[in-house]
Design brief:
The protein is α+β, with helices and mostly antiparallel strands. It contains 3 helices and 5 strands; from the N terminus they run H-E-E-E-H-H-E-E. The chain has a 5-stranded antiparallel beta sheet with strand order 1-2-3-5-4, covered by helices on one side. The chain is globular. The chain binds adenosine monophosphate (AMP).
Protein backbone atom coordinates (compact mmCIF):
# COMPACT_ATOMS: atom_id res chain seq x y z
CA UNK A 1 0.00 0.00 0.00
CA UNK A 2 2.88 2.35 0.67
CA UNK A 3 5.04 1.64 -2.39
CA UNK A 4 5.68 4.41 -4.90
CA UNK A 5 3.33 3.12 -7.57
CA UNK A 6 0.47 2.55 -5.12
CA UNK A 7 0.94 6.18 -4.10
CA UNK A 8 0.99 7.35 -7.72
CA UNK A 9 -2.28 5.43 -8.26
CA UNK A 10 -3.80 7.33 -5.33
CA UNK A 11 -2.40 10.59 -6.74
CA UNK A 12 -0.34 11.11 -3.57
CA UNK A 13 2.77 11.44 -5.74
CA UNK A 14 3.05 13.23 -9.08
CA UNK A 15 3.64 11.38 -12.34
CA UNK A 16 3.66 12.24 -16.02
CA UNK A 17 0.60 10.17 -16.84
CA UNK A 18 0.04 9.29 -20.50
CA UNK A 19 -2.90 6.87 -20.25
CA UNK A 20 -5.49 5.66 -17.78
CA UNK A 21 -8.46 3.34 -17.96
CA UNK A 22 -10.41 1.05 -15.66
CA UNK A 23 -7.58 -1.45 -15.34
CA UNK A 24 -4.31 0.35 -15.94
CA UNK A 25 -2.26 3.51 -15.56
CA UNK A 26 0.73 4.45 -17.75
CA UNK A 27 3.30 7.13 -16.98
CA UNK A 28 6.87 8.15 -17.77
CA UNK A 29 9.66 6.46 -15.84
CA UNK A 30 11.40 9.04 -13.67
CA UNK A 31 14.84 7.79 -14.78
CA UNK A 32 14.41 6.97 -18.47
CA UNK A 33 16.67 4.32 -19.99
CA UNK A 34 15.55 4.97 -23.59
CA UNK A 35 14.24 7.94 -25.62
CA UNK A 36 10.78 6.77 -24.55
CA UNK A 37 10.49 4.82 -21.29
CA UNK A 38 7.01 4.32 -19.94
CA UNK A 39 5.69 2.18 -17.11
CA UNK A 40 2.30 0.51 -17.29
CA UNK A 41 0.78 -0.73 -14.04
CA UNK A 42 -2.46 -2.50 -13.18
CA UNK A 43 -4.81 -0.66 -10.83
CA UNK A 44 -5.14 -3.66 -8.54
CA UNK A 45 -2.60 -4.19 -5.74
CA UNK A 46 -0.51 -6.96 -7.33
CA UNK A 47 3.11 -7.06 -6.27
CA UNK A 48 4.57 -8.80 -9.31
CA UNK A 49 3.95 -10.65 -12.55
CA UNK A 50 3.74 -13.81 -10.47
CA UNK A 51 1.10 -12.40 -8.14
CA UNK A 52 -0.89 -10.87 -11.00
CA UNK A 53 -0.89 -13.97 -13.18
CA UNK A 54 -1.97 -16.12 -10.22
CA UNK A 55 -4.62 -13.89 -8.60
CA UNK A 56 -5.99 -11.33 -11.06
CA UNK A 57 -9.35 -11.83 -12.73
CA UNK A 58 -9.69 -12.54 -16.44
CA UNK A 59 -10.99 -9.00 -16.90
CA UNK A 60 -8.02 -7.46 -15.08
CA UNK A 61 -5.53 -9.52 -17.08
CA UNK A 62 -7.21 -8.77 -20.40
CA UNK A 63 -7.57 -5.11 -19.51
CA UNK A 64 -3.94 -4.76 -18.50
CA UNK A 65 -2.54 -6.57 -21.54
CA UNK A 66 -4.73 -4.51 -23.85
CA UNK A 67 -3.64 -1.31 -22.09
CA UNK A 68 0.05 -2.11 -22.64
CA UNK A 69 -0.61 -2.69 -26.34
CA UNK A 70 -2.73 0.44 -26.58
CA UNK A 71 -0.08 2.65 -24.96
CA UNK A 72 2.61 1.36 -27.33
CA UNK A 73 0.33 1.87 -30.34
CA UNK A 74 -0.62 5.40 -29.28
CA UNK A 75 3.07 6.22 -28.79
CA UNK A 76 3.73 5.28 -32.43
CA UNK A 77 5.98 2.39 -31.51
CA UNK A 78 4.41 -0.44 -33.49
CA UNK A 79 6.12 0.23 -36.81
CA UNK A 80 9.62 0.93 -35.45
CA UNK A 81 9.24 -1.67 -32.71
CA UNK A 82 9.62 -1.63 -28.96
CA UNK A 83 10.64 -3.69 -25.95
CA UNK A 84 8.64 -4.80 -22.91
CA UNK A 85 10.21 -5.81 -19.60
CA UNK A 86 8.68 -6.97 -16.33
CA UNK A 87 11.34 -7.39 -13.65
CA UNK A 88 10.17 -9.92 -11.09
CA UNK A 89 11.63 -10.63 -7.66
CA UNK A 90 15.24 -10.58 -6.56
CA UNK A 91 17.01 -12.09 -9.55
CA UNK A 92 14.79 -9.97 -11.78
CA UNK A 93 15.97 -6.81 -9.96
CA UNK A 94 12.44 -5.68 -9.19
CA UNK A 95 12.64 -2.57 -7.01
CA UNK A 96 9.01 -1.49 -6.68
CA UNK A 97 6.61 -4.13 -5.34
CA UNK A 98 3.66 -3.23 -7.56
CA UNK A 99 3.56 -4.98 -10.95
CA UNK A 100 4.88 -2.75 -13.71
CA UNK A 101 5.75 -3.38 -17.33
CA UNK A 102 8.53 -1.21 -18.73
CA UNK A 103 7.87 -0.04 -22.28
CA UNK A 104 11.02 1.08 -24.09
CA UNK A 105 11.12 2.68 -27.52
CA UNK A 106 12.70 5.29 -29.73
CA UNK A 107 15.95 3.62 -30.65
CA UNK A 108 17.42 0.36 -31.89
CA UNK A 109 18.03 -1.98 -28.97
CA UNK A 110 20.78 -4.54 -28.83
CA UNK A 111 21.18 -7.89 -27.17
CA UNK A 112 18.56 -9.06 -24.72
CA UNK A 113 20.31 -9.01 -21.36
CA UNK A 114 22.83 -6.65 -19.84
CA UNK A 115 24.00 -6.58 -16.24
P1 LIG B 1 12.07 -2.08 -11.36
O1 LIG B 1 13.54 -2.21 -11.10
O2 LIG B 1 11.59 -2.91 -12.52
O3 LIG B 1 11.23 -2.29 -10.10
O4 LIG B 1 11.85 -0.59 -11.85
C1 LIG B 1 11.39 0.45 -11.06
C2 LIG B 1 11.35 1.66 -11.96
O5 LIG B 1 10.56 2.65 -11.34
C3 LIG B 1 12.71 2.28 -12.26
O6 LIG B 1 12.92 2.29 -13.67
C4 LIG B 1 12.60 3.68 -11.67
O7 LIG B 1 13.26 4.66 -12.44
C5 LIG B 1 11.10 3.90 -11.67
N1 LIG B 1 10.59 4.88 -10.71
C6 LIG B 1 10.91 4.97 -9.40
N2 LIG B 1 10.23 5.97 -8.81
C7 LIG B 1 9.45 6.51 -9.78
C8 LIG B 1 8.51 7.59 -9.81
N3 LIG B 1 8.22 8.30 -8.72
N4 LIG B 1 7.91 7.87 -10.98
C9 LIG B 1 8.20 7.16 -12.09
N5 LIG B 1 9.07 6.13 -12.13
C10 LIG B 1 9.69 5.82 -10.99
Amino acid sequence: DTNIFARILRRELPARIVYEDEHALAFHDINPQAPLHLLVIPKGAYVSWDDFSARASEAEIAGFVRAVGHVAREAGLVAPGYRLLANTGGHGHQEVPHLHVHLFGGRQFGAMLVD
